[in-house]
Amino acid sequence: MITQKFLKLKKYLFLISILFLFTSLFHLIYIFLYTDAKTIPVKWGTISEWLIWNFPSLNPLKNLSWNNQYVIWLLYRSLLKYDLEEDKIVWDIANCDISTLVNIECYINDDAKWSNWEKITAEDIYSTYELIKSTNSNIILTSLLEGTKIEYKDNMIAFKNNKQDINFLNVFFQPILSKKTIDSLSKENIFWNFPTTDLVYSWNFKISNVSSDLTLWVSKIILDKNEYYGNWNISKVIINVFPNINTFLKNKQSVNVFNDDDNIIWESVPRLQSNKYTLPQFVWLFINQNKVTNLELRNYIFNKINSENLIELLWKDNFNIVNNPYIWETKIEKEPNIKNFESIMKSLGYTKKSKKIEDLIPEKEIPKVEEVKEETKNTTEIKDEDLDIAKFQKESEIIVKPTYVEKYNFVTKEDILLEWVSTSEVEEIYINDYKLSDYKKWDTSFFYRLKTSNWNFKEWRNNYKIYFVIWWKKVFKEEINFLLNTNKEILNSQEKAFVKDLYLADLEAKAKQEEQAKEEQAKKENEEKKEITNINQEEFEKVNKLDENIYYDKDLTPFTLRLYYLNTEKALDDTANFIKNSLKELWIEIELVPFDLNNVAKVLANKDDYDMILTWVNLWYFDFNIFPYFHSSQSKNWYNFGNVKKTSLDILLEDLKSNILSDEKIKENQIKILEILKEEQVIKTLYTPKINLLVDKNLKNKEMYESLPNKYLRSYILNSSYIKEDKIINFENKSIVNFFKFILKKLYE
Predict the structure, then answer these.
(1) Cβ(241)–Cβ(219) under 8 Å?
(2) pLDDT digits over 134-177, tens only?
(3) Is the pLDDT of residue 4 over 80?
(4) Residue 510: exposed, middle, or buried by beta-carbon count in 10 A (0-12, 13-18, 19+)?
(5) Of 67, 107, 388, 661, which is most buried, counting CB atoms within 10 Å of its CB?
(6) How far apart are alpha carbons 287 and 193 in whole angstroms?
(7) Comparing C-alpha atoms, which of 465, 457, 479, 476 is closest to residue 408?
(8) SS3 state of residue 586
């Protein structure tokens, strides 16, 4: 019986061994075949992108919300597009000759087709632009196309105008509609009820369905891949539009892509990866030159508004400080020439309460006392103990080597290596104006070599002031003096003369302090002798009720600046209040006046109503062209908010605007423009936002960019992404011989 059971067990073990052997063999074969297999994406899968608030109108003719522009970009092509891989503007539907901006001829590409496989024609392009011109559906494009004659023939379309304007090229980013679609539109369709289905498209996707889910309170736009042109690996995009944040949050776990500008769900859904990028979109503060005419006052205002503190308030991770309109490091602020702010206000006819009371109260006549000037002779006897260097010496707080270093040092060495200590909060270190390049934050020590051959150490007196940068603020730490002479005898004699100078300077400082104290005492006594006699009691009572921390004119009207600000989002509200609070330190009252996009035209038509204006600025694709904001021709009813009128500036701006220039020439003009803006002091560039795009980590091959020229181009991040992948075996090197070689290699490994 035992033998029979043993034989049965032996049989099972044999079968298991055979099974294990075959399993191992198949596993080895699988590894061998797929070792150098090529991974390729499978054009398959659905992603879910979520939007909040505005349901897209899906109308490509109107310049509406970001949501609408984003969806439109997934559906339609245009004459121009931005190639993020090449980081430049390229032609799309057609190739156009822009050697002259006056007469642009475009020839349609062969691959320009609709989703129904019909070719995009010159008539389609012509009909799109003529519809915009005739209906004024897009105010910006209509103004750019004003006076432009559009002609087409066969495969060519030409734009003829009398404007030599690089900004005109923005019209070529307009999505193109088919003529059949245009012919089917009514006036109501164009402005309000644009059709959402049964249209033809030209870009990556096409609309298959638009629906609403009343149970979840969500609207859906389902986009299927355009089989003709679509170059995405994703086959379907479902765009979910939620009416509010609360509804959105209830369903947040299902999202694949979400533009989380307000950090609604950031870090609360681990599956989503954050990618932050910037746009050529800025917040600028303009001062109206016609209202605030004093240059020094404008300097003071701009210097008082600290950009570092501002973005800390807003949320540092979501904003980048901008120093000038071209996002360079160059700052266009400058220190005021007049250090006494009260003198500036006095020159404008504004004084504080105390000064006005002083002017109201006459001084009682006080007999003048003739000053008796005695000849001051330097009769002070200098004793040897007075010239003891120890009286002026002070040990260094931060220099540890050499140990002899004090505030004043007499040395004969021409080469001295100093070792210093710092703390973890020190970010940067400066010695005079020289920044220690080798020092990194968290370093506990740093070195600085004094050497005559390095030109940082010279004979006789060498003065070094040490500054630490802590929390972005440059703080003076210590002053060290080295007095060098290789001849010790000469050095000893120089030491006596140097200490004598220190002693006399100390005496002079003490004498000045005593003199200042006497003057202050005399002033106090003089003020006590004032009487309130023969004054207008009523006027005095009015003045006495004033706020001491405000400047008033002769009519007792407080000095107030009116700040208009675009209140389209919370960041702008917070920025306006930050400016108001910052200028309180100068005792300047700020009246905040919000406006929205619907009131922009009214604001532009009444520029005498504001002293300052805070607004978004979008430079789009041609970010060097700041013509609309600073050219004198734009000061009346246009975007020159600061009312800048400078001929030299106009010439540079016209050159950038009217010509296709080389990169070198553009840069040259930009440098000159910044120099002029620094002198005029009409603009403070504050910050640019960082857009927080959350993308599902399961999406493979995501392209991450630091900046985008436009917000709706964020889909570029998903351009080459895919969900599913396949592997293709390379059979060229697959043979039985190579298989055994592969096994032997694995054994030896």
Answers:
(1) yes
(2) 988 888 788 889 889 999 999 999 999 887 888 888 899 999 99
(3) no
(4) exposed
(5) 67
(6) 42
(7) 479
(8) coil
